[in-house]
Write a structure and sequence with these properties.
binds nicotinamide-adenine-dinucleotide, 22% strand, 25 strands, seven-stranded mixed β-sheet, Aldehyde Dehydrogenase, Chain A, domain 2
Length: 542
């Protein structure tokens, strides 16, 4: 038994590669894109390390060319969900008894594989399957996935170091047990890295998972699962179970061994899961830990001292990169009347320059939204604005789903600060702007704070640093990730721990020790060197 006290140093963040024309990384990526485009694959369930193919199948299609099939996948029925739960429970003892440094080494090996051998695979699968351009895929599927893996090993080592003091005549220890049972990891379509982390954070701390991936990100998620296996993850530690959320969720929540849910997705789904757990509470062996990061209605608030170009560029990137499908995407903006003409002309200029189309063509800044449901939903919001007396569309406004689910980046200006698209998460490329009178800034800040139920991300732009600080104070609970003179997207693991409160989730800050702590159930062990031999206390003796 190796009894070294081990410590993982603070890792550095994975560098983002350039993918310039003819660079080696660009050439590798182009070869891989071609391979994945011309060779559709089969995506089985992976339970207890074994591939399972059921009778129910579905197809993975490219959002930007929906006639093109990338893969056929198999859907779990209740039978496979039971098998996955059993496999996770069977693997739990051996996995949790293993030295935590071995668990960490498997995470680090997976990071290494993604950084090198499978960089192009992960990027190509995320580009084609989720319609991300090269840069959006690289910062997610490669860099953030690697950062989560490496930083979790480091943060785990910090948690394991924490020990209580020992007083005279005793020795105190904390044992960081994983939860008793299995963890249900439920991932969204929009970030490959989040799908990885929802499993690997609890797994790092000795837990095992039943993983329900989003159907619209199955290609990249399947490759992730294969990489975890190649990195040495034992069978049954993560069980990959694609299929209907309703079918899988219902069966999983019936298990008395459910120890926790690690969720990222919409507020509605998380509320549903929480409600179901609450209804069945007496039936669980432990109180399931519920950790969920959900939606946002993220804002930029512009102070009259701001610089128009900086505001416009950051609003455009923050609202429209990855088609506005980041939980952190800007979707409402408050602009002072005095700056509006300049900001408006900058925004219109960028809008007329930015191109939309297939992910294969690197000039395209915008690609397709994820599926038909999302396309129809956003077009309903745009039509609502087109028909309203309270709104004007100053850029975009058109959509076309004949080839792919393309929606033009759309900028709505409204006279009603509580306009529908100022309040509701649309999760698509729509930015709504309210113009306030410069002398009404205080009231407008209050509106910004109270307009939406969410509290995920927000930004203020101001050259007046004192004003920025006051705005930051006033909007204290409006965002869990707050930015000064920057767009509110693009948080980096280890630099800006991510998560919001209010309706945006439990704010356990993915990729850090706050989150990892939720996956352990510490046991305190006290040993006394001289046990008592006299029942009376000294003051009782005459
Ligand atoms: P979604 O809620 O539709 O789906 C998330 C996952 O839940 C999917 O895997 C889905 O199949 C599953 N699911 C649905 N119903 C279920 C049920 N009854 N039981 C079990 N699982 C079920 O979300 P989405 O469209 O994939 O992702 C977009 C949402 O995610 C947005 O609201 C976005 O803001 C949010 N998001 C938040 C963060 C964050 O960190 N706060 C990050 C990324 C995405």
């Amino acid at each position: 038994m190796n009894n070294a006290i081990f410590n993982f140093p603070i890792p550095s963040n994975e560098p983002v590669l350039d993918y310039k024309k003819n660079s080696p990384e660009r050439q590798q990526l182009e070869t891989e894109l071609d391979k994945q485009l011309t060779n559709p694959i089969d995506i089985p369930l992976i339970i207890g390390g074994k591939e399972i193919r059921t009778k129910q199948t579905g197809q993975v299609r490219m959002p930007h060319r929906h006639s093109h099939v990338l893969a056929t996948y198999y859907k779990a029925t209740e039978v496979e969900v039971d098998m996955a739960i059993q496999a996770a429970l069977d693997a739990q003892k051996i996995w949790s008894d293993l030295s935590w440094t071995v668990r960490a080494s498997i995470l680090l090996k997976a990071a290494e594989l993604i950084s090198g051998k499978y960089r192009a695979t992960m990027n190509a699968a995320t580009m084609l399957g989720q319609s991300k351009n090269i840069f959006q895929a690289e910062i997610d599927a490669v860099c953030e996935t690697i950062d989560f893996l490496k930083f979790n090993a480091f943060f785990a080592s910090r948690i394991y170091e924490m020990q209580p003091r020992s007083a005279f005549n005793q020795l105190n220890k904390m044992e960081f047990r994983p939860l008793e049972g299995f963890v249900f990891a439920v991932s969204p379509f929009n970030f490959t890295s989040i799908a990885s982390n929802l499993n690997m954070a609890p797994v790092m701390m000795g837990n095992t998972t039943v993983w329900k991936p989003a159907t619209t990100s199955l290609l990249s998620n399947y490759y992730l699962m294969k990489i975890f296996q190649e990195a040495g993850l034992p069978d049954g530690v993560i069980n990959f179970v694609p299929g209907s959320g309703a079918v899988i969720g219902k069966k999983v929540l019936e298990s008395p061994d459910l120890a926790g849910i690690h969720f990222t997705g919409s507020n509605e789904t998380f509320n549903h899961l929480w409600g179901e757990v609450a209804k069945q509470l007496p039936h669980y062996k432990s109180y399931p830990r519920l950790i969920g990061e959900t939606g946002g209605k993220n804002f930029i608030f512009v102070h009259p001292s701001a610089t128009a170009k900086e505001v416009a560029v950051n609003a455009y990137r923050g609202a429209f990169e990855f088609q506005g499908q980041k939980c952190s995407a800007v979707s409402r903006m408050y602009v002072p009347e005095s700056l509006w003409p300049e900001i408006k002309s900058e925004l219109i200029e960028i809008s007329s320059d930015a191109r939309m189309g297939d992910v294969i063509d690197p000039v395209n800044f915008i690609n397709a939204v994820i599926d038909e449901g999302s396309f129809d939903n956003v077009m309903n919001y745009i039509t609502f604005a087109q028909n309203s007396d309270e709104a004007e569309i100053i850029a975009g406004g058109q959509g076309d789903k004949s080839v792919g689910y393309f929606v033009e980046p759309t900028i709505i200006v409204t006279t009603n600060p509580k306009f529908k698209s100022m309040q509701e998460e649309i999760f698509a490329p729509v930015l709504t702007i309210f113009i306030y009178q410069d002398d009404k800034m205080q009231e407008t800040l209050e509106l910004c704070n109270a307009t939406s139920p969410y509290g995920l991300t927000g930004a203020v732009f101001a050259r007046d640093r004192v004003a920025a600080s006051l705005m930051c104070e006033q909007l204290r609970y409006a965002a869990g990730n707050f930015y000064i003179n920057d767009k509110p997207t693009g948080a980096i693991v280890g630099l800006q721990p991510f998560g919001g409160s209010r309706a945006s989730g439990t704010n356990d800050k993915a990729g850090g020790e706050f989150n990892l702590i939720r996956w352990i159930s510490p046991r305190t062990i006290k040993e006394t060197f001289q046990p008592a031999t006299e029942y009376r206390y000294p003051y009782m003796i005459e």
